[in-house]
């Protein structure tokens, strides 16, 4: 067991050389630990200038994986052995230990068809692939060079194959002999001294290196590096934890819509339990490590649960906002299509019905997603919002009533103005009052007709009275216009009648001239009174009559 060493002196292309052959036992024996195999491989590789690695029949993916693990552990061992041992204080740090020798991978009992074994191995390593690796592993980046040499069966008889130590040279197959000779030549061509800092190592340095490596291996420099099985178990546990946590997260994130908190909590518990069950199945038989893995999974689930819960809360808030907007839109939709102005009593009943039904529907839609306090806040919020919407529509309806009444008043006033513009002659008091009554009736009929929707509203009487005051102002203007026309007419009549006294022809001498003129004046006054008899009830008539009387006296005196 262990490593056997034998030396041989040859005369090679590099001159006279002393070759030290190191032969190791096979790996993966039933009574040997993997750590022991790693020590044998590490020491053998680090003291060699050419490494021969034997396999049987075929190289598969597991062989490549195993050799890669051994090689990388050897690199760490080389570093640890130099850093940790005190004996290296007498020597400079040997960086050459971190550079591996050339590798010849020998495949024994190879019966497959491979015309170029080197190319075959090259293709095999280049096609090597691992799923979900966080790093790239390649033997081509570890060893200085890699060659592959296949060897046929050394014998074909079963009895000989059972114990090759008893096989003579004569019993060997010709293919095996030829391939053995090729291998010997390949080794001979690749033989170089073990170097240190660019020069061949001396025997003393080689002995010191072997001693240091063996002591480092025995002192545990390699034990801190986990075995392949431990790594596998850890990777399995890590993968199982990640997979179960991913399963948990994928289930809880599979819902696009918000979930009620209770439903989310139930789903969390069920999925958490399922994740633990899956973990237990994946790690069945790993003892205490299952509990450790369960704790690690629990932490991941707790972390994911908080994240997903916050995300669900945001989705709930967005959903509630969307529902609130939809409720508000439905409120608007129910009122928007109603033509305005609409009877206030009916309009108020429609609004009150919506203010009762829609908040109830809103509460029913969100009650499973919020707690009692949040529900109360949301219901209060939707009520305030809908009340504001209701006031807005009531204001619009009120303004529509005002617009209808203003339009009706404008139309009615235009009719009154048109009738007043046609009024160019003065009227008697009776006719004037009749005309005013006619205009008021015209206005009222037009206004009431124009207020077909608002005349039954409470505000109708208020605004009707306001517009009637404006109408009375217009009527007052009409009276003033009639009075002005009457004054002008009476004034003109007074002037014409007063001039009549001047045109009276009297034969002189006349003994009773005053009496004659008095009679003429009375006749003129009588004619004036008869001409303007329709206006005798007005104060302007009597004033004009007095003015005429005075003018007649003045003209008589003159």
TrEMBL record:
Superkingdom, taxonomy of origin: Eukaryota
Give the organism the record lists.
Dimorphilus gyrociliatus
Does the keyword Hydrolase belong to this entry?
Answer: yes
Q: Which UniProt keywords apply?
A: Hydrolase
Protein name according to UniProt:
DgyrCDS2977
* One Pfam assignment: GBP
Guanylate-binding protein N-terminal domain: which residues? 2-188
What stretch or stretches form a coiled coil here? Answer: none
Instruction: Cite the SUPFAM superfamilies for this sequence.
Output: Interferon-induced guanylate-binding protein 1 (GBP1), C-terminal domain, P-loop containing nucleoside triphosphate hydrolases
Sample GO molecular function, one term: GTP binding
User: Which InterPro entries does this entry report, sorted A to Z?
Assistant: Guanylate-bd_C_sf, Guanylate-bd_N, P-loop_NTPase
Q: Would I find Secreted among this entry's keywords? A: no
């Amino acid at each position: 067991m262990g490593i056997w060493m034998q030396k041989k002196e040859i005369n090679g292309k590099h001159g006279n050389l002393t070759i030290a052959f190191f032969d190791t036992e096979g790996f993966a024996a039933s009574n040997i630990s993997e750590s022991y195999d790693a020590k044998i491989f590490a020491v053998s590789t680090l003291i060699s200038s050419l490494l021969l690695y034997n396999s049987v029949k075929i190289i598969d993916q597991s062989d490549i994986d195993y050799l890669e693990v051994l090689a990388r552990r050897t690199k760490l061992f080389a570093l640890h052995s130099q850093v940790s041992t005190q004996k290296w204080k007498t020597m400079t740090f040997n960086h050459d230990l971190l550079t591996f020798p050339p590798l010849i991978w020998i495949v024994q009992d190879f019966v497959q068809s491979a015309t170029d074994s080197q190319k075959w191995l090259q293709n095999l390593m280049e096609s090597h692939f691992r799923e979900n690796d966080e790093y790239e592993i390649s033997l081509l980046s570890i060893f200085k060079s890699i060659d592959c040499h296949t060897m046929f069966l050394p014998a074909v008889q079963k009895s000989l194959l059972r114990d090759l130590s008893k096989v003579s040279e004569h019993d060997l197959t010709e293919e095996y002999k030829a391939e053995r000779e090729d291998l010997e030549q390949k080794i001979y061509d690749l033989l170089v001294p073990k170097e240190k800092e660019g020069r061949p190592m001396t025997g003393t340095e080689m002995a010191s290196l072997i001693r240091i490596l063996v002591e480092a291996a025995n002192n545990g420099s390699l034990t801190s590096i986990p075995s392949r099985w431990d790594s596998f178990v850890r990777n399995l546990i890590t993968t199982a934890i990640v997979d179960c946590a991913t399963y948990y997260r994928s289930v809880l994130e599979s819902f696009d819509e918000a979930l009620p908190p209770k439903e989310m909590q139930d789903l969390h518990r069920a999925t958490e339990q399922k994740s633990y069950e899956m973990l237990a199945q994946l790690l069945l038989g790993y003892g205490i490590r299952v509990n450790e893995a369960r704790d690690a999974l629990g932490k991941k689930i707790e972390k994911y649960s908080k994240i997903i819960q916050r995300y669900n809360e945001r989705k709930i808030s967005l959903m509630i906002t969307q529902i609130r907007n939809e409720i508000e839109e439905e409120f608007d939709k129910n009122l928007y299509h109603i033509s305005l102005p609409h009877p206030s009593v009916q309009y108020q009943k429609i609004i009150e019905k919506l203010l009762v039904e829609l908040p109830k529907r809103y509460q029913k839609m969100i009650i499973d997603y919020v707690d009692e306090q949040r529900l109360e806040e949301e219901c209060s919020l939707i009520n305030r919002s809908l009340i504001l919407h209701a006031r807005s529509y009531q204001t619009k309806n009120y303004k529509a009533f005002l617009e209808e009444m203003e339009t009706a008043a404008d139309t009615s006033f235009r009719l009154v103005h048109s009738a007043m513009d046609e009024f160019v002659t003065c009227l008697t008091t009776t006719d004037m009052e009749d005309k005013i009554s006619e205009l008021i009736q015209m206005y009222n009929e037009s206004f009431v007709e124009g207020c077909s929707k608002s005349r039954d509203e409470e505000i109708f009487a208020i605004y009707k009275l306001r517009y009637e005051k404006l109408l009375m102002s217009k009527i007052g203007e009409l009276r003033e216009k009639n009075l002005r026309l009457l004054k002008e007419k009476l004034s003109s009549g007074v002037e014409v009648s007063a001039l009549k006294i001047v045109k009276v022809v009297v034969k002189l001498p006349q003994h009773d001239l005053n009496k004659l003129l008095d009679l003429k004046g009375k006749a003129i006054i009588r004619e004036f009174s008869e001409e303007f008899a329709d206006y005798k009830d007005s104060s302007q008539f009597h004033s004009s009559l007095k003015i005429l009387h005075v003018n007649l006296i003045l003209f008589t005196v003159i």
